[in-house]
Specification:
Largest sheet: 4 strands, mixed
Structural class: alpha/beta
Number of strands: 8
Order of helices and strands: EHEEEEHEEE
Radius of gyration: 14 Å
Helix content: 10-25%
Number of domains: 1
Strand content: 35-45%
CATH architecture: Roll
CATH superfamily: 2,3-Dihydroxybiphenyl 1,2-Dioxygenase, domain 1
Distance between the termini: 22 Å
Strand order of the largest sheet: 1-4-3-2
Shape: globular
Length: 124
């Protein structure tokens, strides 16, 4: 249902370096960029993630209760993405682990304070 998500940033070059390294862990590559915007996708036509300086010119702020979830193919990739985010200077919001049967997730914040999680869902 979600085509792409954008997160606000006040420092596009710093945020882009964070997401270049983080999303490379799951095959994410830049597919669109400008001075105020960068977007990544893992495959043509799939969902994407972007960072942007707010269009209205005001500073980017973190939404209270907003979180972006990145679906990955295994618990090992959840672990790897969470570890990479912390290595890149992100902060821990919940170590990787099983939250309920079949749902394995790790939570973190990027350099601008945006909350994300990486998750693996095994519905079997």
């Amino acid at each position: 249902m979600i085509g792409y998500v954008t997160l606000g940033s006040n420092d596009i070059p710093r945020a882009a370096a964070f997401y270049d390294a983080l999303l490379a862990e799951i095959g994410g590559k830049r597919f669109m960029e400008a001075d105020t915007f960068v977007a990544w996708m893992t495959d043509a036509g799939g969902g994407g993630l972007g960072i942007t300086r707010p269009f209205d010119g005001n500073p980017a702020t973190v939404g209270n209760g907003v979180m972006v979830a990145l679906k990955v193919d295994s618990p090992a990739l959840v672990d790897a993405l969470h570890a990479k985010a912390l290595q890149l200077g992100g902060s821990d919001e919940g170590a990787p682990g099983e939250r309920m049967p079949g749902f394995y997730a790790g939570y973190f914040r990027d350099l601008d304070g945006n909350k994300l999680n990486a998750y693996f869902w095994n519905a079997d």
